[in-house]
Structure formats: C-alpha cells, structure tokens
Specification:
The complex is a heterodimer of chains A (334) and B (328).
Chain A (H helix, E strand, L loop, with lengths): L14 H20 L4 H20 L3 H8 L7 H8 L2 E4 L12 E8 L2 E8 L5 H6 L7 H16 L4 E7 L6 H5 L2 H14 L4 E10 H5 L6 E5 L3 E3 L3 H9 L5 H7 L4 H6 L5 E3 L10 H20 L3 H13 L4 E3 L2 H8 L1
Parallel strand pairs in A: 3-4, 4-5, 5-6, 5-7, 6-8
Antiparallel strand pairs in A: 1-2, 2-3
Chain B lengths: L2 H11 L10 E3 L3 E3 L6 E3 H6 L15 H8 L6 E3 L3 E3 L11 H12 L5 E8 L2 E8 L10 H16 L3 E8 L7 H20 L4 E10 H4 L10 E2 L5 E2 L3 H8 L10 H6 L5 E2 L5 H21 L5 H14 L17
Parallel strand pairs in B: 7-8, 8-9, 9-10, 9-11, 10-12
Antiparallel strand pairs in B: 1-2, 2-3, 4-6, 6-7
The chains are: A alpha/beta (334), B alpha/beta (328).
Chain lengths: 334, 328
C-alpha cells in the first residue's frame, strides 16, 4: 500500500500492472459518481489484470527475481514469525558483548511445537534498515545465532532459520572481530547439532552471510528468492570489470530457485502468490508454515544420528567434476 | 660496488623492468626480491624456501615446492589426481569458463587449484592439502572442495593429523552456488575429523581470503600463518568503498589477525616443517598418555589400538581385537 509520502513501491516491470489497476480504480470512481453500472467492464479489466500479472510474474528473469527478492515490502523474518507462531519470545544477545539487530531469534511455538526460530532481519523502513544494517550481520550476529542454536539443541527444539541478507557485513570491525571465523564456526557446528535444522531462503541469500545460518537438513526457497555465491553486482565488476553487467551476471550465476533445484542444492521450492510474496504476505506465511510443518514431520521421524548422517551426505554430494584420465574425458565429451 | 648492487641497479634502470607479485626470474639464475629488490642466486633462495636472504620477505611458492618443503622425501602419496573440473553452469563472462580452465591448466601444469595426499612429516603420518594460487587465484570450486573433503575423510579414517596450506582468493564464481556449498562440505568433513579426536592445522599463506577464510582456514585446532600474509574475509577495496575510511596499515595481515586473537603463531617458512612436526608430535603424545590411562569409550580404545599398531607399542590385552574402526 503506497501512501503519498512514500515513493512508489513497485518495480519497473510491474508498471503496466500498476497502471491498469489505477485505471480500474478511476473507472470505478467515475461510475459511482455518475451512478452508472460498469461492473461488466470492470470485471473484464480485472481479468485482464490477472492475466497480465500471470504473464509478468510467469516469466521473470534472474535479475527481475533479484528485484522481487529485494522488494522493500517483501515479508521479513519477524513478519513470518508473527504470522505463523502461536507463541513467540524474542531472545537477545550473543553473550560476548553485543546484540546484533541484523539477526533476530527466539523461542516459539509452532502449532503447539516448541521451536527456535532465527533469521536475518532487514528493516521495514529506512530508519529501521539503518538500525539493522540492511540485514548484514556482524560476527556477533553469527555468534548470537549459534548461541540460540546451541540453546535449541540443549532443549531438543527444532531449529528454523530464515535467510534474507545481501551478505555478511564487510567492515573494519567485522574483520577485527573475525567475520570469517564466526561464519566458519557456524558451518562446522551446524553439522554437529542433534536437532532438526530447517533453512528457508525467504528473500536474498547473499553468499557466506547466508550460508552462516544455512547448513541444515532441509533447504527451502521461495520461488522468487535468490541465492548467490557473490552478489551479481560484485561478480559483474570483478569478472566483467563493469558493474553495469549485473543483469548478465545474475543470469550466468544461476541464482534462482529453479536453477538451484536442478543443481541439487535446494530441496524444495515454495510457491508464492501471484505478484510475489509482498502482494499477499499472509498467504505466503501460510505456505511457509505448511512447508515447515511438513518437513519437520519427516525429520522428526529420524534418529538424531540418522539425521546428522543424512545432513552430512546431503552436502557431501554437492559439486560437479569428472574423474579419470584425460583419454576417457575426451571420449565422454565427444 | 658489489655484484649484487650492480645487478640491482641494472634492474632498477631497466625501463622494461616491472615489479609485481610474481617473482621475477632473471635468466633463471638470479631472482630479485619483490620487497627489497636485492638479487639472490636462485639456488640459494630455493635452499632457503624462497624466503629473501636479505630482508626475510616470503616470496610465493607453489604446491609442488610446498609439498617438497614439508613432506619427508620418498613418502608422498598423491590422492585423487584425476579429479577434474567441469563447467557445470556453462559460465561465460568475457571468456568461457571452459577456456579459462584449459588456459589455467596449460599455464600451471595443474589440474585444479589444490593438491592433496598422504605423507610423513618428520616420520609422523599426516594428510596434507596444498592450495595453489597459480590456478585461477587458488579459487575454490567443486574440485577443490571434493579433493579436500576426501583428504579429510581419509585423515579421519586413519586418525591422521590434517594440514591444509591455504592460498586462495575465495570461492570460484564461475561455478556459482556449487562453489559456495564447498565451504559447508569441507566444514562438515572437518567436524567429523574433530569428533574423531584428530588434530587439524591450517597454514594461512598469502593470500587467504573470502570463502576460504570463512570456512576451513579458520577452523583449525591451531592456526598458523606466514609472516605478513594477507588474511581476511572481505576485500580491502570493498571495505574502503563502503566505509570511506582509512584502514589501519597492518589491516588484514597475519600480524593483525594474531593481535586480534585469530592466529596462534606466525611462523617463518624456514621453521614451518619443524613447528608442524613438533605440534603433531605433542598432540599424539598427549593422546598416548590418555590412552595408557584406564580407558572407557570406544573412541579411546580405537586410538590405543591405532597408536599401538603404528608405534609398535604393547597393546593392552583387555581390548578386543576387531574393535578397530578403520584400517589404513
């Protein structure tokens, strides 16, 4: 809902949709003022609008999906938590001298089941975004996440993580406090935890900053979310030596849910409402909740050891290479 | 004027002479230090493991030399030499990734950016991985991930200490998310190695950055770095751009990381082998000490058996044969 004091919150490719919607509103207003019945025309236009939405959202390019994933109105970790839990208490602090607001987490009840939920938190407006550093976590943020995960493990509560970050914070303090170590530690320790771990890319999965809370038994991703090894902008400026080639880089890097499913990285794609998650946050939250409950049911039927073995094998398999002397390579390539 | 100075001056006045990261070989016989400019007889420099005899600057060494420097002669067994890179995304920037692979292979003589294997370090069996910066900046793709994971798994099965010499710009973008996932894969293998009670020591050399720093480089039980090596998560330029602030002079050096608590010891290359050997010996000795005490639990029992076998120690009778988890 764009209000007058805010800049319009639609993306370039959504413009025809917005225009059409405005036209419908105008006709409706005129008809009311003049007491004319235009319900037939309106219905026609609504159908056209729906069709157009399908066309636009059916064929999004990688860079358009990136825009949807970064949409300022896209539901955030706290939005989903509020929508899907029947009890929730946010917990604060890394117990090492800080409380990074770019990562939130706490204890919750999901359909009566105690869980720990944590995730990156982008801001809801500019001020909030500055406070939360646009969801870019510091080393303290990753240590806070690990502290919450340890808590979950101790009390046998499944861990649910929501990933939505441009990347881990790149700053002098982050380096001084060991950004690399903080992420690395989480990668290793998440393999050790006995409780089920469920990770969902709800928006932007930015590189190591995403992976730092992204090692789990089951990885889900919304259909317009993206997951990247490096941001397309950074990749373009390094490989193309031209930051303007970001759209090309986004395409080449294979960052969409479909791509990642094909590469064997992603387990499940969650469907978004027509028009993206921001067009109907509550319905999206319901999809997410159902996905989580479904996956948890499966994971809870395994023993902790079986779950950990499975988790290890899941990542163990990822990667593509050939093996064998050069001769056999030449024949397989021909 | 000494002969050295004469050469140094001649190089300085040479308009075509260029300084850079790559070490310069003048006719192959002489090598100029890129830090102090002093020329040294290449054979002397090699004997000193490419550490400048004058200023102590550590010049870049590649994987073959590194293996030679660390592993006892005649004990090196290379692992998985036939694991080769492919182009899973059909990636094309200004050049296709397939072409880049072929180019890097013919230029470096390597198959990808890491060599792995088993060997002895002053008589103690270890598993070793050595990254090679020549191959696409030591970047980590599927092959690096797979070879390191296999080497770590082998080390776990044989209860060997693991050493990884890091030199990398980070994840290999041309393999997209497959590269990022190697960080998790290797970390998972290290978790099992750790759980088995084995020692892991990464050696951070110039440069160790990005996804390598954010995974196995920082997961050592003990972390060693070479003097003045660049070690960091984010690139210096990125940080300068986002913050527009002046960075400390020693920012992201081995010394800076040690000051901030992320590196145990900065070890000159000439002492690297003996230091690693001391550490491996100490930790194995501690395991033996524990093992001779009354044992409980399968893990300790396995260690007694393995250590006993390896060192020819007498193994307590109370331990049933056949309880060994893994045979080398």
């Amino acid at each position: 809902m764009a209000t007058a004091n805010r800049k319009p919150l639609y993306l370039d490719f959504e413009k025809p949709l917005v225009d059409l919607q405005e036209r419908i509103e105008r006709i409706r207003r005129l008809a009311e003022e003049n007491g004319v019945d235009v319900s037939d025309q309106i219905q026609q236009l609504e159908e056209r609008s729906h069709q157009l939405r399908q066309e636009v959202y059916g064929g999004l390019s990688a860079v358009q999906r990136l825009q949807v994933a970064r949409h300022p109105r896209r539901p955030s970790t706290l939005d989903y938590i509020n929508a899907m839990t029947d009890d929730w208490l946010e917990l604060h602090g890394d117990r090492r001298g800080g409380d990074d607001p770019a990562i939130v987490g706490g204890v919750a009840s999901l359909d009566g089941m105690p869980v720990v939920i944590l995730g990156h938190q982008k801001g809801r407006d500019t001020k909030d975004n500055v406070a939360r550093n646009f969801g870019m976590a510091t080393p303290g943020g990753y240590r806070k996440a690990m502290r919450l995960m340890e808590h979950a493990d101790r009390f046998g509560m499944p861990i649910i993580t929501f990933i939505d970050t441009p990347g881990a914070w790149a700053g002098v303090d982050a380096e001084r406090l060991g950004q690399g170590e903080a992420i690395a530690y989480n990668l290793r320790e998440m393999f050790r935890l006995n409780v089920p771990i469920l990770c969902t890319i709800i928006g932007e999965g930015g590189s190591g900053g995403a992976l730092g809370i992204g090692v789990g038994d089951w990885l889900m991703m919304f259909e317009h979310s993206v997951y990247t090894v490096a941001s397309p902008e950074a990749c373009a400026s390094i490989l193309w030596r031209d930051a303007g080639k970001a759209a090309q880089a986004a395409e080449a890097l294979k960052i969409t849910a479909r791509d990642l499913k094909d590469l064997g990285i992603l387990d499940e794609i969650l469907v978004e409402p027509l028009g993206g998650a921001h067009s109907n946050p509550l319905a999206t939250a319901e999809t997410l909740k159902q996905g989580i409950v479904r996956a948890l049911e499966q994971l809870l039927s395994l023993s902790p050891q079986a779950r950990r073995d499975r988790r290890y094998q899941k990542f163990r398999k990822i990667g593509q290479f050939t093996e064998g002397p050069i001769e056999s390579l030449a024949t397989s390539a021909s | 004027m000494s002969l050295f100075d004469w050469f140094a001056n001649r190089r300085k006045s040479d308009p075509a002479g260029h300084s850079g990261q790559e070490r310069e070989i003048a006719d192959g016989l002489w090598t100029k230090c890129e830090a102090c400019g002093v020329l040294a007889y290449t054979k002397d420099l090699q004997a000193n493991q490419m550490v400048c005899l004058d200023c102590g600057h550590h010049m870049r060494v590649y994987s073959d030399e590194r293996i030679q420097q660390l592993i006892d002669p005649g004990t090196w067994v290379a692992l998985d030499r036939d694991v080769r890179p492919v182009d899973p995304l059909g990636f094309f920037d200004r050049k296709s990734y397939s072409d880049r692979i072929v180019e890097a292979q013919s230029k470096s003589g390597l198959i990808d950016a890491v060599q792995t294997g088993l060997g002895d370090l002053e008589g103690q069996p270890i598993a070793l991985g050595v990254m090679d910066f020549r191959f696409m900046g030591g970047s980590m793709g599927s092959v690096v991930g797979e070879k390191l994971t296999r080497a770590i798994e082998r080390a776990t099965a044989e209860r060997r200490a693991m050493v990884i010499v890091c030199a990398s710009g980070g994840a290999r973008m041309q393999e997209g998310m497959l590269s990022l996932m190697q960080m998790a894969k290797i970390s998972g293998a290290l978790e099992q190695h750790r759980e088995a009670g084995c020692l892991y020591i990464p050696v951070l050399t110039h440069p160790t950055t990005g996804g390598v720093t954010a995974s196995f480089a920082m997961l050592g039980d003990i972390i060693i770095a070479e003097p003045k090596a660049l070690i960091g998560f984010a690139g210096r330029r990125v940080i300068e751009q986002t913050l527009r602030e002046k960075l400390p002079d020693n920012f992201q050096t081995a010394e800076y990381l040690q000051q901030n608590g992320f590196v145990d010891a900065i070890v000159p290359r000439t002492q690297l082998k003996s230091t690693l050997a001391r550490l491996v010996r100490l930790h194995h000795a501690s395991r033996r000490a524990v093992a001779t005490a009354p044992t409980n639990g399968a893990r300790l029992r396995d260690e007694v058996m393995l250590d006993g076998q390896r060192d020819g120690l007498h193994v307590e009778r109370s331990i049933a044969p056949g309880s060994i988890a893994a045979q080398p």
